[in-house]
Design goal:
Keywords: Glycosyltransferase, Transferase. It comes from Autumnicola lenta. Strands 1, 2, 3, 4, 5, 6, 7, 8, 9 and 10 form a ten-stranded mixed sheet that branches. The protein is built from twelve helices and ten strands. By secondary structure, the chain is an alpha/beta fold. Helix 9 packs antiparallel against helix 10, helix 10 (259-288) packs antiparallel against helix 11 (291-304) and helix 10 packs parallel to helix 12. It folds into two domains: 23-226, Spore Coat Polysaccharide Biosynthesis Protein SpsA, Chain A (Alpha-Beta Complex), CATH 3.90.550; 239-334, no CATH class.
């Protein structure tokens, strides 16, 4: 089985006639045991009971702890546990989560993220108010490895609504995180699961949904996305794979647009993503001072898109990197 599917994996409908919950909170986990208690706890505080909410951790053969024991202790019988027979990778683990879900609504809550109190009731209200929506999401906050607030996501609308021109807005650049969005199971059954790349696969999925269905939204900050050095995002930054994957994703998303919009939007999407990742590379440099990560990002960026802004920013970053040893030396001399 390919770790990265080349086409959307099939999600089987549920036809067993047995009672189904409204919600499936599926928690994919791999070597995030230090954060998993917070993820599980944030759901249990909003538990609707077994009749309405399935809660399950799907473990991709973690090696950092006994995840089964951790789930048993934290969940006290309320949270179920499933372990892959072998490590299958994040995309196949998400696919397993969706296929094992039984609820009408599926929330893929990564084991290192958290939801705030009120998330599930707010999304319920969105689906009730906008029954035509295939997915619904909220605004979210970024937190660091210690759980401290970092910054907030953009606000897409001032009040709960279905978002207008959402596919075109999504095509411009990534603007969603897993932790914030819930998708109806029937949508995954019709459109399939995640595929194509290891990084940015969610951007393609949200665009695929937006092409076919409405997306509902609330500006409430009810989810928390954690940024840390063991995440898929950080690992992809280290090699520069994040940008290569995004190029593939961008091409697919642009193909979902009307022909007349595709050429212009492709250039816009590349520019926006390069601007964003360049700023992220600046931020990562000052936090971690990892030269190799910065060099990998810069080399890949310059192959994709160049303008005066990109050239000047990369030159400034390189200047910071090259002069850093001297600045640290003179700082020590002064002290």
């Amino acid at each position: 089985m390919q770790r990265i599917p080349t086409s959307p994996p099939y999600i089987a409908p549920i036809n067993d006639g047995l009672p189904r919950p409204l919600w499936s909170v599926m928690i994919p986990a791999y070597n995030c045991s230090s954060y998993l208690p917070e993820a599980i706890g944030s759901v249990l505080r909003q538990d609707m009971g077994e009749a309405l909410m399935q809660i399950e951790v799907v473990d991709d053969c973690s090696t950092d702890a006994n995840v089964e024991e951790l789930v048993r202790t934290l969940g006290r019988g309320r949270v179920s546990y499933y372990k892959q027979q072998v490590n299958v990778g994040s995309l196949r683990n998400f696919e397993t989560c969706i296929n094992r879900s039984r609820g009408e609504y599926i929330h893929l809550l990564h084991g290192d993220d958290r939801v705030k109190d009120g998330y599930y009731s707010a999304i319920n209200k969105l689906f009730d108010k906008f029954p035509e929506a295939g997915a619904a999401f909220c605004a979210w906050e970024h937190i660091d490895s210690e759980g401290n607030f970092s910054h907030q996501s953009r606000i897409e609308a001032k009040e709960p609504c279905t978002l207008e021109n959402w596919l075109h807005k999504l095509a411009e650049f990534p603007r969603l995180q897993y932790v914030a969005i819930t998708v109806k199971r029937e949508i995954y059954e019709k459109l399939g699961s995640f595929y194509l790349v290891h990084y940015g696969e969610d951007w393609e999925m949200w665009a695929r949904i937006a092409k076919n269905y409405e997306t509902a939204y609330t500006p409430q900050f009810l989810a928390e996305y954690r940024e840390h050095k063991n995440s898929i995002t950080w690992r992809s930054y280290q090699s520069g794979q994040n940008i290569k994957d995004i190029l593939k994703v961008t091409a697919v998303i642009i193909s979902y647009l009307p022909k007349k919009d595709q050429r212009k939007m492709l250039k816009t999407a590349k520019r926006n993503y390069v601007y964003w990742i360049l700023n992220e590379t600046f931020r990562a440099w000052f936090i971690a001072k990892n030269k190799q990560v910065a060099y990998n990002q810069i080399k890949t960026i310059l192959r994709i898109y160049r303008d005066n802004y990109v050239l000047s920013r990369t030159a400034l970053l390189l200047l910071y990197i090259w002069t850093d040893p001297y600045r640290r030396y003179f700082k020590r001399r002064k002290t």
